[in-house]
Design goal:
The structure holds 2 protein chains of 2 kinds. By secondary structure, chain A is mainly α. Chain A has helices spanning about 10-20, 25-40, 45-65, 70-105, 120-135, 145-155, 170-175, 185-215, 225-255, 275-280, 280-295, 300-320, 325-345, 355-375, 380-390, 405-425, 425-430, 435-450. Chain A is about 70% helix and about 0% strand. In chain B, helix 6 packs parallel to helix 13. Chain B is globular, with a radius of gyration of 23 Å. Classes of the chains: A mainly alpha, B alpha/beta.
């Protein structure tokens, strides 16, 4: 059941009605049942896995909190981490590791491979579980006593499959002090759901057609212009796709009285790679910082160690996205850029420059990020290197390299909207402003979905594969 | 429900209402007049619009409706040249790619009171409900052809007439939110609005003549030889591109009889017949000439096929099944399906005279 499918738009109102019609004490059961129904609509076979991880982490946290002896605490933490990383490792990385092993040992390529189906959202809910258990271990969080409450935290359907990666502290703050959303929050929630849907169906799916046609037939699109068009389209696709999903998740949560953290803050307006990572997939960046970069030592042990920690964090962040050398290189590329920026002065890349320089740096950053996306999108390393070579090879500019004019106008409109949001926070203003302005915004978004959106089929979200 | 939630719901309902009103105004009303004239929906609109604007001097009108074969074969210009002899005026709203489901809705709009015509000529492939490999009930393009004509009251019947649930859903949401179906046309319109409006205006002014004065192609099928026994085709070099079409028409096995096609025709032709029951308009079915050569393995004769059963109604007439057999010659066909210029001229004249025989002297 995709967020952009007709079934989901039956599911969501039904859940909302049941949630608000039920007595308060019953609401968490409704949300839990809805979340498991949502999960099962993908593949019911993985419910035992989700339940097992939930049970292990729930129990581990209680055991950790109940221990006074540090060694036993560590043991329970290790149990939880092993379970989470073990399952994640098996489902996500087994074939990658054995594939590399067979290549090293000159064995037949598929001799150790298994037909493994990746459980939906495993990368997201394991990270969420790990953060919970580690927070309890660090004494920053009290363990959750009620297993239903904990199960809901892990399986809550708006963020189950592709985040944002919500911290237990944030979730339970809302959960235990639940208040019905205010009018502005409801309106903001609805607008975010609709905005997310528009980003996905109108922009991401349209750009997906351009990038797919390039990356699936590289040989038929030679030249730098085609390579930049395909890569640039993917850059736009993945942003609108993922931020669209996140907007919908945040909007749905808001309608149910939960406040998810911001996950994107107009990343393509970033003026440096450092700034980009403060704006892109913020909940993952935050997780990597708090549970990987800082435990590794962060920037506390000199420059060399800082660069090493940055590289390690980004390499693992890349690997988190997918089991392939492409993702590792993508992570390493960003780690390298971040390290370089550190080398040339951190402040320079954290403070926004003045206007004409800002535009130049934003365009440069977009270009650098787009180069990284090549590894993210291309089928394998050979294709990635081919595309990179094409990007920097002088070539002809056939008329087919231009995107349809109306799509170009949509991009211009998106940039303007992003700038307006950056400066004026129009989504908040609309939710608080006069009803007529809100009505106009909703009508415009609905017409965009109707007339420009890809409605022939529900295209899966890119991040669902992670 | 808390007050804040209620207010939010009210604003949301207002938004949806505003959207529905605008969508209704634009795509359920205004947009039909600026559809690209050469699109599928535009074709239907052009034919219906031209027919509604056609000046009728008397009540002796005969209308043809069918797919591309009757569109090319029934030439009103030729049939009307015989008006002094027949007393009847012919018009044709046959549309390439249309199906009996489309014909029902086209007739409903071109003849709202079911009293404009002395006769309506409907062309069918066979009087025996010959099966097709394609399930016509699931033909997606029908929605696109008919989108400007479909009303909210058609929502359940039209979408329900598809078998495939996905097609049903597409039709349902398409009738409800027509912009979804007009999407490509609208995007095309946005590229060059002024050009579109000029084209629509020109089509509205001149398309009557484009169609009325059209003379068919002079090409023919001479030189294409089919050896049914050896299962081989001999095709002139300049026609090799058409080979797959010829093979399908002459050599490929016929679909087995399942009754699926019959049920489909019975439903939609039956609905047309029901509209004209007791109306004074005669519904005349004809079997279109089968092809430049007739394959020996014809579909089985079905005594109670859809059209044969319809013939039991007083307002329905079937032209003799073999009435147009004399036209089934390579020199009269443009390809494996369509009559050429000479074939069309002969067809139109034969039909005009036969209609005079059938309907008697004009009123």
């Amino acid at each position: 059941m995709l967020f952009n499918s007709a079934q989901f738009f039956v599911f969501l109102p039904v859940v909302m009605v049941l949630f608000y019609a039920a007595p308060r004490a019953a609401r968490k059961y409704i949300l839990l049942a809805a979340s498991y129904f949502f999960y099962m609509s993908w593949n019911p076979r993985f419910v035992p896995l989700l339940l097992s991880l939930t049970a292990i982490d729930y129990a581990s946290a209680l055991w950790i909190a109940g221990c006074t002896e540090p060694r036993r605490k560590k043991l329970f933490l290790a149990l939880s981490l092993s379970a989470n990383l073990g399952f994640l490792g098996f489902f996500k990385y087994y074939n990658f590791l054995t594939g590399n092993l067979t290549r090293l040992l000159h064995l037949p390529p598929e001799s150790l491979a298994l037909a493994i189906v990746l459980p939906l959202g495993i990368s997201f809910h394991t990270f969420q579980s790990i953060s919970y258990v580690v927070d309890v271990y660090r004494g920053e969080l009290q363990p959750i006593r009620n297993p239903i409450d904990y199960a809901l935290f892990i399986s809550f359907f708006p963020q189950l499959v592709a985040g944002p990666i919500v911290r237990a502290r944030e979730f339970f703050e809302d959960f235990y002090h639940w208040k019905p959303p205010e009018t502005e929050e409801c309106l903001r929630g609805i607008l975010l759901v609709l905005l997310g849907l528009t980003k996905k169906m109108v922009l991401a799916d349209q750009f997906a057609q351009i990038s797919d046609s390039y990356f699936q037939n590289l040989a038929t699109h030679p030249g730098a212009a085609a390579a930049w068009k395909g890569t640039g389209s993917f850059a736009l696709q993945i942003f609108f796709d993922f931020s669209g999903y996140t907007d919908m998740a945040i909007g749905m949560a808001l309608l149910l009285g939960f406040h998810f953290p911001v996950n994107f803050r107009r990343p393509y307006l970033a003026f440096s790679i450092t700034d980009f990572w403060h704006r892109w997939h913020i909940s993952l960046s935050r997780w990597l910082r708090d549970y990987l970069y800082i435990p590794l030592g962060g920037n506390r042990h000199g420059k060399v160690m800082t660069y090493r920690n940055l590289m390690l964090t980004m390499l693992l962040g890349g690997l988190w996205h997918g089991a392939s050398w492409n993702f590792i290189i993508w992570g390493g590329y960003h780690g390298m850029l971040l390290s370089l920026e550190r080398m040339f002065g951190r402040e320079r890349f954290q403070e926004p420059p003045r206007m004409p320089v800002y535009i130049f740096r934003a365009v440069l950053t977009f270009g650098l990020v787009s180069i990284g996306w090549v590894f993210f999108r291309a089928a394998n390393l050979t294709d990635s290197l081919y595309v990179l070579r094409q990007m920097f090879t002088a070539g002809h500019f056939p008329s087919s390299v231009f995107i349809p004019p109306w799509l170009g106008w949509l991009v211009v409109a998106s940039v303007l909207i992003a700038l307006l949001e950056e400066k004026l926070e129009w989504i908040d203003r609309l939710s608080r402003g006069p009803a007529w302005a809100y009505v106009i915004a909703v009508v415009v978004l609905l017409f965009c979905v109707e007339l420009v959106g890809v409605t022939e089929k529900a295209v899966p979200f890119v991040y669902f594969q992670f | 429900m808390k007050e804040s939630m209620r207010r939010a719901v009210l604003i949301l309902l207002g938004s949806l209402l505003g959207y529905a009103a605008l969508e209704g105004l634009i795509f359920h009303n205004l947009y039909a007049s600026i559809i690209r004239p050469d699109s599928s929906a535009g074709n239907v609109e052009t034919f219906i619009d031209n027919e509604l604007r056609r000046a009728r001097t008397d009540a002796n009108q005969v209308l043809g409706i069918g797919d591309s074969r009757l569109q090319g074969a029934l030439t009103p210009r030729v049939a009307n040249q015989l008006r002094s002899e027949t007393g009847y005026t012919f018009a044709n709203i046959s549309t390439a790619g249309s199906t009996p489901r489309c014909w029902y809705y086209m007739l409903r709009d071109v003849d709202p009171a079911a009293n404009r015509y002395s006769a309506i000529v409907i062309s069918v492939d066979s009087y025996d409900d010959a099966e097709t490999w394609e399930d016509f009930a699931d033909r997606q393009t029908d929605l696109h052809y008919m989108i400007a004509r479909l009303r909210l009251s058609d929502l359940f019947e039209f979408s329900g007439s598809y078998h495939d649930p996905q097609r049903k859903w597409e039709a349902f949401r398409g009738i409800l939110v027509k912009g979804l179906v007009y999407k490509q046309d609208f995007q095309h319109f946005l590229l060059r609005p002024a050009l579109r409006l000029a084209y629509v205006k020109q089509s509205r002014r001149e398309s009557v003549h484009w169609f009325y004065d059209y003379v068919g192609s002079a090409e023919d099928m001479q030189g294409v030889e089919v050896d049914f026994a050896a299962h081989t085709l001999k095709i002139p070099p300049d026609r090799l591109a058409q080979k797959p079409g010829y093979e399908e028409a002459f050599l490929n096995p016929l679909p087995p009889y399942t009754g699926r096609r019959g049920a489909y025709l019975r439903y939609w032709l039956g609905k047309i017949q029901a509209r004209y029951r007791g109306s004074g308009t005669r519904l005349v079915f004809l079997r279109f000439p089968r092809g430049p050569v007739v394959r020996p393995d014809q579909p089985p004769v079905i005594a109670h096929s859809s059209v044969r059963d319809l013939a039991a109604y007083p307002e329905v007439t079937l032209l003799p099944e073999h009435f147009f057999d004399s036209l089934e010659r390579p020199e009269l066909f443009l390809d494996q399906l369509h009559l050429n210029r000479t074939g069309s001229d002969q067809f139109s004249a034969m039909l005009a005279r036969e209609m005079r025989e059938l309907l008697g002297p004009p009123r």
